[in-house]
Specification:
The complex is a heterodimer of chains A (374) and B (274). Chain A has 374 residues and is mainly α. Chain A contains 14 helices and two strands; from the N terminus they run H-E-E-H-H-H-H-H-H-H-H-H-H-H-H-H. Chain A has a two-stranded antiparallel ribbon. In chain A, strand 1 and strand 2 form a beta hairpin. The longest helix of chain A has 33 residues. In chain A, 50% of the residues are buried. In chain B, strands 7-8-9-4-10-11 form a six-stranded mixed β-sheet, sandwiched between helices. In chain B, strand 10 and strand 11 form a beta hairpin. In chain B, helix 3 packs parallel to helix 5, helix 4 packs antiparallel against helix 5 and helix 5 packs parallel to helix 6. The chains are: A mainly alpha (374), B alpha/beta (274). Chains A and B meet through strand 1, strand 2, helix 9 and helix 10 of A and helix 2, strand 7, helix 3 and helix 4 of B.
Amino acid sequence: MLAIGAPAPQTALALFAGFLTVGIMLRVSRMIPATSSGVRFGGFSAVVGWRTVWLTAGAVGLAVTLLVVGLIVGDFPVPVVDALRTAFFERGGEYDFVVNTLRFPRVVTALLAGICLGLSGAIFQTLIGNPLVSPDIIGIDQGAAVCAVFILVVGGNIALLPIAAFAGALATALFIYVLAWKRGVSGTRLVLVGIGVNAVLAAVVTFMLVRFPIERVAAAARWQAGTLFGSSWEDVRILAVGLILLSPLAWYWTRKLRMLELGDEAAAALGIRVERDRLILIAIGAGLASFAVAVVGPLSFVALLVPHLARLLGGPMTTGLLALTAALGAGLLLGADLVAQRLFAPTTLPAGVVTAAIGGPYFLYLLYRYNRAI
Amino acid sequence: MRSDSPSHPPTLTTQALDLDYGGPTIVADLEVTIPVGEITVIIGPNGCGKSTLLKALARLLKPTEGTVFLDGKDIHRWSTRDVARRLSLLPQAPRAPDGVLVSDLVRRGRYPHQGLFDQWSAEDERAVGRALELTSMVELSDRPVDELSGGQRQRAWIAMALAQDTPLVLLDEPTTFLDMAHQVDVLELLRTLNETEGRTVVMVLHDLNQACRYASHLIAMADTTVIAEGPPQDVVTAAMVERVFGLACKVIDDPVSGTPLCIPLGRKENSKNT
């Protein structure tokens, strides 16, 4: 095991710059008024919140910047121009292996997984009306983990891992939904049942980890921490398929989600089929989380943190806020992975360790604030 | 995607209605007809099934037996969206999500009229503007709902129900948690809506005297069924109040409105009067 050294001065400086950027973004967002205005042309009409538009543009910019930074930094630095040329224009050449095999798939995986986790968290938090909820807390991620860890510890085909994780997550979501059913599903009951299911599934994973041979368990344990190490274009393909299938559904059902967050009765009076639409939204949220978990493992707290940050910046749920959440999710995971790789370089950490290190304290802070508000 | 609002005011009636929540019967064999273009108030003691009846009228609860008819057709055979274009419901003590602005809340009332790509038509804008105006919420429209006072918050929700632009407006205890001045505000607003826009209003109220003053049609419920129904002047008598609420009282004319005013008798007053 390599000893973990102190972060290099330039890494610390970069981290500081990162925090400063986020701080400035927060300041600027306050200066843009939160009002929205109607836009109409032809058969189209919509209400546009300009603050959300600006913030989304900023967050997309941040994600793209981090993506490029992810291509150039590492144990083997690559000049920006060469990195971009190798990645986008001329494949091959001096930097081909480092850029196109090691780094490019990894950053794109981080980008897409971040989007999945952000969207999933936003759907669950809005649907349940509780900022402390996310798919990793109510057991969806753990459901995926049970199936994935099983494949790893019995030495099954690694190619089946995403499918197993997807099946595990959906089965868990359905199981929680059925357990929480009592003439309809209330948010609180869903969370409590989910936390219980999460604990049981975590025990199942632990059981498998102590029961099976150590050399297989090591791979499972590493996957469980949530890592982007060794991401391939195959991972990118899985995430892309997931997003192409589920993000249009998420976008469409956001309008119904906005009605559902007014309460079941108000939503029903507005013409929402409450139970059907809630089940569909849970399935979309669980699906999005499962694709991310299948590829990068249960990265804790991303799905909790990102929607929260988005709401803090952009206000209550709208389709625009969903876009902001996606962009912030991508940015956060890219940033977390960069920190995980470079903070104690040459020793690298799993990205999940970094997200947990940021997310854990933030979760406690939320818990503290939420309790005080009651 | 847009379909026009109904051309005539829709009717709402029930036939042999039995309601429960999977347990004991809450409402049994109930028949009521909501008069079109009037204010109907449902009164009764706690647990008599008045809110349950309102839920069934708004299609939130499926009857165990019997039928609610909206415009002569079983309300459960309408599409949810078509119901939402004819009938709006303000639930009891609704809660807005954190940070939602008044304008955003009221805009959501337009949902049943909107299409996927047509989410803010001129008609939507007009209906929202009118709802804000009627409820005097124009100045407050850029404020978060959770920062408003109780009365303002209730007006914001009523504005949302009005933006839905339905001929039938159902409200479940719209005056709960409000102080007296705000209670009168809300009831006056509903009366104005009824008079100027011809909307049919159906609401559950706790206060019998307020019900007498604002209702043109009163439905008194007790013990799963309707005890008396009709204009307050005809319905509210000492005997009826005794039967419905189990309360001895004296009914006099309200010195302001001339409607019945019920004055409860305590033990002391009761012995003096009899």
